[in-house]
Specification:
Layout: E1 2-10, E2 15-18, E3 24-37, E4 43-54, H1 59-64, E5 70-83, E6 89-104
Parallel strand pairs: 4-6
Antiparallel strand pairs: 1-3, 1-5, 2-3, 3-4, 5-6
Length: 113
C-alpha cells in the first residue's frame, strides 16, 4: 500500500458499515476523471471509481457526505479484485482514508413557491 490523494464527487451517499470487533467505519465511492485517447486517437474523459473506507469520521462529517459532494481524500491505497455483475474478476481501488476534506456540494435547482 502507498499514500494516495484524490479529488472527486461522491457517487452515492456515504454509509456506515460494521467491521471486525464491531468497529464502525464509513464507505463511499469517489469518481475521479481521467484523460485518455479513444481508438481514433481523440481525447476523451472517463471516470475512475475509487472505493473509500474511513474509520475516523464524525457524525457531523457523515451528514455532509452526500451524492455529488466534492471531496479531497488522502490515505493508503490498495488494489483489490472484485466480481462484476457478470461474475468476471475486475481490479478495484480501495483508499483507506486518513483525511477527508469537503470541497463543495452540488447545488440542486429549486423553484421558489
Amino acid at each position: 500500500m502507498f499514500l494516495s490523494q484524490v479529488i472527486g464527487n461522491l457517487g452515492a451517499d456515504a454509509s456506515i458499515q460494521t467491521g471486525e470487533n464491531d468497529r464502525k467505519y464509513v464507505t463511499f465511492s469517489v469518481a475521479h476523471t481521467e484523460l485518455g485517447k479513444d481508438s481514433d486517437g481523440k481525447s476523451v474523459e472517463y471516470p475512475v471509481w475509487i472505493s473509500v473506507s474511513w474509520s475516523n469520521y464524525t457524525d457531523r462529517m457523515l451528514a455532509c457526505l452526500k451524492k455529488g459532494t466534492k471531496v479531497f481524500v488522502q490515505g493508503r491505497t490498495k488494489v483489490k479484485v472484485y466480481n462484476d455483475n457478470s461474475g468476471n474478476p475486475q481490479p478495484g481501488i480501495v483508499l483507506y482514508a486518513t483525511d477527508v476534506i469537503l470541497c463543495g456540494a452540488r447545488i440542486e435547482n429549486t423553484v421558489a413557491s
